[in-house]
Amino acid sequence: MLDVRRLHMLRTVAARGSIAAAAQSLALSAGAVSQQLSALRRDVGVELLRPDGRTVALTEAGRVLLEHTDRILAAVQEAESALAAVKGTVGTTVTLAALPSTVSGIVGPALTALGSDHPQLVVTCLVTDQAQLRELTLGTVDVVLGQRYHHLPDATPRGVEVSPLLDDPLLVVTTADQGDGRPVALRDLATHSLAVPPPTTDCGQAILHAFRQAGFAPTSRYITADTGAQLTLARAGLATALVPRTAIDPATPGIRTAPIEDRPIMRQLFAATRHTETANPTTTAVIAALRTAARQGLPTRLPAT
After folding, report:
1. DSSP 2
2. What are the tens digits of pLDDT across the range 155-202?
3. Rounded to a whole number, what is the largest CA-CA distance in the chain?
4. Strand partners, 51
5. Residue 148 contacts residue 270 (beta carbons within 8 Å)
6. What is this structure's pTM?
7. pLDDT tens, position by position, 67-108
8. Is the dihedral of CA 6, 10, 15, 21 positive or negative?
9. Distance, CA of 279 to CA of 225 (rounded, Å)
10. CA torsion angle for 111, 266, 251, 253 (degrees, to 10)?
């Protein structure tokens, strides 16, 4: 009989590209993963992996088994959710992956509420802006607080269910003695020194796309995905930043915010989980807390005029 844990390891190795990377993801030693995969090979009686330069690749038999593995692990997830629904209680552990720009405005208040409503639940929070939905499909995390921009195609993987939380516009941020808080035309930023995320990020791509539509190339003086660094540069008068509204504390001294008037740049924040026919009480509680925090935080984050 096939061992579910070994199948999970095979899928992780296929996704990570190497046994070492898979072992790090699974918090195991490379030797332990190799031993389990060797046992899986003996179980099925055929080679499942082959060397591919510095990485490993699936053999034809490995690809066939992986297709079945996805369905097997999805069925296990469905069974776990169904049993949790029968018990009707929130579990004891859950892992949440969240964007850095959502920690103060949404994640922090949501975790506080969860601690009050479900004191038995321990939430591990992974703050990262890379490969979150892939981590969800691999089972590394249980809930993802992610983002998507309207100009990018929907890249939601198969088997992932998305719940929209909030439309979150980018605001123009300057030092407090610049501007008056009234809406800003994007083309007016053509002469500004900007602090923007790298073009390899979703937010950076969205900003570049909007600038091109406005007919100019930005003067990107500072390139950083750290919204805290962007706000610091804006407060010092060194740059104009474009920062999501939920990432800006309205009480931050020394800055002024203004909406974009003509070509707003909008991200949609969402909560994502692995799809199951039966809702899991634990992930449902986490998503409800995130949604409440997003809605409650919205009025306090409107730019002052």
Report:
1. -
2. 788 889 999 999 999 999 999 888 777 899 999 999 999 999 998 888
3. 72
4. 56
5. yes
6. 0.82
7. 999 889 888 888 888 888 888 889 899 999 999 889 988 999
8. positive
9. 34
10. 130
